[in-house]
Amino acid sequence: MEKACTKCGDIKPLDRFSFDKRTRDGRQSWCRECVRASIAAYRATPRGRKACREASHRHEAKPSTKKRRQAYRRSPKAKAAAADYVARNRDKRAAKNAVNSAVARGDMPPAKDCACADRDDSCFGPVEYHHDSYLESDWLVVRPLCRSHHQRWHVNNVAKRSATPTLSRQSHEQTPADTRKRSRSQAK
Fold it and tell me: How much is the pTM?
């Protein structure tokens, strides 16, 4: 069976329309693609972003959500995932600890006292320090970013990181023999 979408006008199979028990045929009048596009357009507006944030805060504040998260954190699966993260991200954790130590000593201001480096109308959330590099020499080279810009930076740069191989700290430390081998091969 087919139905015409009242938004785009296309005739589509019924399975392209979500359920709605209030209608005669039991389906919504807009197809799923039009509904998805409409929701995305609303969320792109300042009012839509604010509504999404408020809904997220309401969900996070629910006692059932908190209980479910606490139960997961105590589970062996969560503990194994945390141990795996620690093992894979030693440089990130060391850089974060170096910044926290510098803040505690008074060498750096707390992130909450800084303004977002990418300040605009879409700033939201607490300010966090962002590391562009996790090399030991760059541990204290950070930029303050609000949470929304920090997340956006990582979303936009994850494709670049996966396209270029990541270098570990050992690959940056070259012995004189490695340097000589490279210069000989480049001379040929």
Answer: 0.48
Q: What are residue 145's phi and psi, to 5 degrees?
A: -135, 140
Per residue in 82-105, pLDDT (tens digit) is: 999 989 989 999 999 999 999 999
Same domain, 76 and 58: yes
| Residue 126 shares a structural domain with residue 159 | yes
- Give the domain CATH number at 9: 3.30.60
* 3-class secondary structure per residue, 47-106: HHHHHHHHHHHHHHHCHHHHHHHHHHHHCHHHHHHHHHHHHHCHHHHHHHHHHHHHHHHC
In this prediction, residues 70-80 reach a mean pLDDT of 94
Report the SS3 class of residue 36.
helix
For residue 131, the Cα-to-chain-centroid distance in whole angstroms is: 14
- Do the beta carbons of residue 33 and residue 44 sit within 8 Å? no
